[in-house]
Specification:
- It is built from no helices and 2 strands.
- By secondary structure, the chain is mostly beta strands.
- Strands 1-2 form a two-stranded antiparallel sheet.
- The two termini are 28 Å apart.
- The model has no long low-confidence stretch (mean pLDDT 78).
Length: 41
């Protein structure tokens, strides 16, 4: 299951707003959940 809550995670960035009038943000990978199973016969 990938990004079940559909949220964005910002992990960093640079604010150029005072100089250029723009900002850049780094998006992180979404939270992921998984299940692994094995059956031996």
């Amino acid at each position: 299951m990938t990004n079940i809550t559909n949220e964005r995670y910002y992990v960093g960035g640079v604010n150029y707003y005072s100089n250029v009038g723009a900002a850049r943000y780094d998006l992180g990978t979404p939270r992921e959940f998984g299940v692994t199973g094995r059956v031996n016969f």
